[in-house]
Amino acid sequence: MIPILLYPLFETAINRVLALDPAVAPRLAALQNSSLAIQIKPFEKPLRFIALDGKLCLENSEAPPTVTIAGDLSAFIEAQMNKESMRAGLLQISGDIGAAQRWQQLFADLQPDWEEKLSQYVGDIAAHQIGNVLRALQAWSKSSVDHLMSSAAQYAQEERGWIVGAAELDHFHRDVERLRDDAERLLAKARQKGITL
């Protein structure tokens, strides 16, 4: 995915972002020597990280990683936008469960102080205003994506009939149970009358 020659640049960028969060050091220390492989399908080679000495490094190793997260690109995007999708099984996680939780915690709790870094270039007031605009933009984009997903699901369910709704599925299950019960009663009556089916 990323050419090995670009690893140092990518590592530097990641570690600069991590350094913007003062609370990240203990979470990185808890991951010392733990490796994470991110396998985005259809790419063959996973992106592999290892936590070493308070930093994240990209590694090119054949050794089994501590944790592997695999899925297609849309599953990773969905997981980024909706944390519940991690529980829905869109991504496959394997390896050391404790380490997987620590890796997840590292990224879930990451709160880089962008305003502090930006204030070094444009001043405190301008950095705060830019931060407000970016937060509003982030909230709007999440709301827009949620609305788009909801509308797409509603269209697929109601207009096209591609997806069965919960009420329709419940009705189907009740019909199947009623049919099963009727069949069992019919079979019991047939046995009472000496009829074998």
Q: Describe the biggest sheet? A: 5 strands, mixed
Number of domains: 3
Oligomerization category of the chains in this entry: single chain
Tell me how many strands there are. 5
Spans with pLDDT under 50 lasting ≥5 residues? none
Helix and strand succession? HHEEEEHEHHHH
Query: Rounded to an integer, what's the Rg over CA atoms?
Result: 26 Å
Helix % is: 55-70%
Q: Walk across the major sheet and give the strand order.
A: 3-2-1-4-5
Task: Please describe the topology of this protein.
Blueprint lengths: L6 H13 L4 H6 L5 E7 L5 E6 L2 E4 L8 E6 H9 L10 E4 L1 H12 L5 H9 L1 H36 L6 H27 L5
Parallel strand pairs: 1-4
Antiparallel strand pairs: 1-2, 2-3, 4-5
Helix pairs in contact: 5-6
Verbal overview:
The chain has 197 residues and is an alpha+beta fold. It has three domains: 4-108, SCP2 sterol-binding domain (Nonspecific Lipid-transfer Protein, Chain A, 2-Layer Sandwich), CATH 3.30.1050; 113-163; 165-197. It contains seven helices and five strands. It has helices spanning 7-19, 24-29, 73-81, 97-108, 114-122, 124-159, 166-192, and strands at 35-41, 47-52, 55-58, 67-72, 92-95. The protein has a five-stranded mixed beta sheet. Strand 2 (47-52) and strand 3 form a beta hairpin. Helix 5 (114-122) packs across helix 6. The chain is elongated. The termini are far apart. The model has no long low-confidence stretch (mean pLDDT 80).
Comma- or semicolon-separated keywords:
197 residues, 3 domains, 7 helices, 14% strand
Outline of this structure?
This protein has seven helices and five strands, in the order H-H-E-E-E-E-H-E-H-H-H-H. The mean pLDDT is 80. It has 197 residues and is α+β, with helices and mostly antiparallel strands.
